[in-house]
Every structure is written in C-alpha cells, then in structure tokens.
C-alpha cells in the first residue's frame, strides 16, 4: 500500500488526478514557480515562530522518517508540547504542527500562514485526528492558529498578539464522519498503477490547472473563458458545449458574456462614445504611473500588518519623459519611495494607472504612515484615472483577451511589446526577486535590478500604447 500523507490527501480533495500523479508520475509534474516556493517558505517561518508560544516544547527532526515515527511515540510519555510529531496509521501518515498535552489527552494545533479559517484547514485537521487516534492518542480539542490580520507591528513582534487561535473541534468532528470513506477512495486511486487518467474525476477549475491533464483539449474562446462564468461555464460544459460561439442563442447570459459570444468569431466590440468620454476626461500633461510592492507573512517594518504591501518601486511617464525609482537598501523603503514620487510626479494632469484600487490603497497607507504628506497624497488620489475600466466594463472587447481584462492580456492586442519577452514578467515574481536580492542577499542583485526596471517600465509604456491605439480607434485627437 502506498503512503497517503496529509498533503496528498488535501491535494486529492481538490484534484484526484493531481494526487495520483504525485505518487505515480511525479517527474511529469511541473516544478513550483518562485512565488509558490516563497509562499511555502513564508509558511515555514510562521510555523517556527508559532512554536515559541510553547517554550518548553520539543521539536522532533523530520529528515529521517523512521526516526521521526519512533521519537514521536517515545516523547508522548514526557507530556510536553511536541512539534512535528509524526504518526502512521495503516497507509496514512501525518505530522502535527503542535501537539499540546491536556491531562491524559492532547490538543491538535494546526498553524497556518493565512489570516482566517478555510474549509481545507478543517479537512487537514480531520485527517490528522484520524491518524493520531488510530495510534491511541486521545484528542481533546482541535485548534487552528493563524495570523491576526489586525495585528500592527509596534516594536518587537508580539507573538501572542500576532496569532489567533480558533477552536475548530466541532467542525472537524463533523468531517470525521466521512474521513474513512475519503481515505479509502483516495487509497484506491493512488494504489492503481494502471489507472487511465480519464477514469479519475475531473476538477472544476480548468483556469487554475497546473498539470494540463484534463483541459488541454479545450479550444480558444472556450466556455471557461466566460467573464465571471463559474457555474454557468460548468453547466455549459456538462451539456457538451465547449466553444463560446456554440452557446445557443436562447441561453441566458450576462451582458458581458453576450458580448463575448458576439466576438467569438473574431469581431471586435467597442463602444465609441464611452471610449471618447474616457479620453476626453484625461487632462494633460498625462502622468502614467505604476507601483510595485512586496509583502511578508510576518510584518518586518513598523506600523505594518501581516501581508502589508510595501512599495519599493515605481515607473512614471510624463509626456516624453520617464522617471523611475527602485529602492536599493535593506531597510524600510517607504519614506524614500514617497519622497521620490513627490519630487518627480507632475503637479497637474491626470494620473493614469491600471486598476486604481491597488495604487490608491497604497497611497492611503502611505498617507497614514506619513501624515506630513497627506495633502500631497490626497491631491494625487483625486487625479487618478483607471484605464482598466475600459476593459472591465467591456467598452472594448477582443476575443484575444480570453475573458480577461489583465494588462498582460490587453497589451498584445494594442502593441507588439510583450511581457513574455522579459526576464521578470509578472508582479509576483518581481516582488519575490526584489525581496530575496535586497533583504536575503540571494541572487545577482545587479541583474535583478535591471530586470525589475525593465518590467515596471513596460507597465507604464503599456498604458501609453493602449491609450494611443484607443485614440486612433475612435478618431480622437
């Protein structure tokens, strides 16, 4: 019998095919990208910090599987908190983040780097409880310890305030009713080497599929590209309707989905008056602006929360001039960031961004942190214009967007420039590369800085190119 670990059990809850591949064809699964690895590392740091709440606890090494099993059983007798205690029951194996003794029973404390309780966390702990009780360990209560989203760093990290511990015992016990059935189902899947992948049930999220196992047959302009499609996309798929163009005329669609159907033959939809109105309201000189940020699970700068976005870079185009800023230290970059922006941004004209909620939220945070610049920041916010509204409101739609209003999907329609040509070509990678190179001394810092500048510059250049083509499209001079 192949071992069903907690992590594979949770993957099976989302996608049984992925679970089967992990055990039977692991080499065919793509490697995690740098951002996913960063998230894992953040989770490990959160887990280690949580252990400090129990200073008399014992950490059990995990490198040697057999040793971990043997030591975990032995240390139960000491009645002290245990970290990474591993237990195997039948073909199931799980390690506990923290086991805390309560008389002759134990509390399970699962530590997560998120800021709330998720349904998958409950399944996580139910699997753990099954393994531990199978080893004769009496479980008293189950808790989820996660980061407190309202915690603000003031001085040194206050561990007890940083974490929130929630009793999830009742919800876990409810899931325990079906845990044996799920384990048997997953065990049958992973132990069948001859499984034809088509025989394993499909997931319902092709857009998030990293394996390209189930959905690689789908054509361009397929029903899963419907804007806010969700259940509608699944409903159509079950009717064997794969192409948007094949959706029956009597099918109930939202106005935006109807535009997609109309454009599925290659036609471009645009609302001339709406686009002209947008362009008419732009005041010169136009400032094209874009921010880059990074965040960490555990706050590292004063007056920040878990996952606060820290501004470290901007690109700014004003007419034919380009200004840029990229922090080059290993401390808090925010003061230097706002001073540079104040120096370079124009005092007049519209400030064009793509998805204004992000930039405005960062500006408000900077205004809170530096009240002396509140008036300057308020003036900037009042001048912000969001280019993305043209596309999110479907005042323009081209089937090449694939239902997305992301600037990375929009730019190739309006320009020959492509993000895929860059070494760093998305915001998540940019944030991680900056953090590693400037705060952890990992990577070629000089090269990374060059790549970061190219990436951020393209964001504002993209705004310029898109507006130029929109002007030409509607004959607006």
Provide a compact summary of the structure.
This protein is α/β, with parallel strands linked by helices. It has helices at residues 6-14, 16-24, 34-51, 65-75, 119-134, 159-162, 169-190, 231-238, 255-263, 272-280, 334-344, 356-369, 374-383, 389-392, 407-414, 427-439, 445-473; strands spanning 4-5, 58-59, 82-89, 92-102, 105-111, 139-147, 163-167, 269-270, 287-294, 310-318, 321-326, 351-353, 384-386, 396-397. It has three domains: 4-197, Lambda Exonuclease, Chain A; 218-267; 275-473, 2-Layer Sandwich (Nucleotidyltransferase, domain 5).
N-to-C CA distance: 71 Å
Q: Quick one: CATH superfamily of the largest domain? A: Ribonuclease H-like superfamily/Ribonuclease H
Per CATH, which architecture of the largest domain?
A: 2-Layer Sandwich
CATH level-1 class of the largest domain: Alpha Beta
CATH topology title of the largest domain: Nucleotidyltransferase, domain 5
Strand content: 15-25%
Largest sheet: 7 strands, mixed
Q: Please identify the structural class as seen in this structure.
A: alpha/beta
Helix content: 40-55%
Shape: globular
Kindly state the number of beta strands.
14
Mean pLDDT: 94
Radius of gyration: 26 Å
Poorly predicted segments: none
Number of domains: 3
């Amino acid at each position: 019998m192949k071992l069903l670990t907690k992590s594979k059990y949770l993957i099976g809850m989302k996608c049984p095919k992925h679970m089967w591949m992990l055990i039977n064809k692991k080499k065919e699964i793509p490697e995690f990208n740098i951002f996913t690895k960063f998230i894992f590392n953040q989770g490990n740091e959160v887990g280690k910090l949580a252990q400090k709440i129990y200073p008399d606890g014992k950490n059990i090494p995990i490198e040697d599987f057999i040793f971990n099993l043997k030591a975990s059983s032995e240390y139960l007798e000491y009645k002290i908190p245990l970290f990474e205690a591993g237990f195997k029951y039948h073909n199931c194996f799980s390690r506990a983040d923290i086991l805390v003794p309560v008389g002759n029973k134990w509390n399970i404390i699962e530590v997560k780097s998120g800021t709330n309780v998720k349904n998958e966390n409950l399944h996580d702990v139910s699997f753990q409880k099954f393994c531990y009780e199978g080893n004769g360990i009496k479980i008293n209560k189950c808790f989820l310890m996660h980061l407190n989203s309202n915690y603000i760093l003031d001085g040194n990290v206050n561990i007890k305030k940083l974490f929130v511990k929630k009793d999830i015992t009742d919800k876990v016990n409810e899931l325990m009713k079906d845990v044996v059935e799920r384990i048997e189902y997953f065990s049958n899947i992973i132990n069948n080497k001859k499984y034809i992948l088509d025989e394993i049930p499909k997931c319902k999220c092709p857009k998030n599929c990293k394996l390209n196992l189930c959905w690689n047959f789908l054509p361009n302009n397929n029903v899963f590209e419907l804007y806010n499609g969700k259940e509608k996309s699944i409903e159509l798929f079950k009717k064997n309707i794969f192409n948007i163009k094949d959706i029956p005329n009597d099918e109930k669609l939202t106005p935006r989905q109807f535009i997609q159907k109309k454009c599925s033959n290659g036609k471009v939809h645009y609302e001339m008056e709406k686009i002209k109105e947008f362009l008419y309201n732009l005041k010169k000189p136009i400032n094209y602006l874009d921010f880059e940020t990074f965040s960490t699970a555990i706050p590292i700068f004063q007056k920040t929360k878990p996952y606060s976005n820290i501004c470290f870079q901007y690109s700014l185009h004003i007419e034919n001039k380009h200004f840029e800023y990229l922090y080059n230290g290993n401390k808090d970059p925010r003061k230097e960031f706002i001073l540079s922006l104040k120096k370079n941004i124009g005092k007049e004209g519209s400030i064009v961004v793509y998805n204004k909620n992000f930039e405005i939220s960062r500006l408000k945070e900077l205004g809170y942190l530096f009240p002396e610049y509140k008036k300057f920041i308020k003036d900037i916010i009042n001048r912000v214009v969001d280019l993305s509204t043209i596309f999110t409101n479907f005042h323009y739609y081209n089937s090449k967007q694939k239902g997305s209003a992301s600037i990375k999907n929009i730019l190739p329609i309006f320009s020959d420039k492509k993000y895929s040509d860059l070494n760093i070509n998305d915001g998540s990678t940019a944030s991680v590369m900056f953090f590693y190179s400037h705060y952890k001394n990992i990577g070629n810092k000089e090269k990374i800085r060059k790549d970061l500048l190219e990436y951020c510059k393209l964001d504002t250049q993209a705004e310029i190119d898109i507006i130029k083509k929109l002007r030409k499209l509607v004959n607006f001079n």
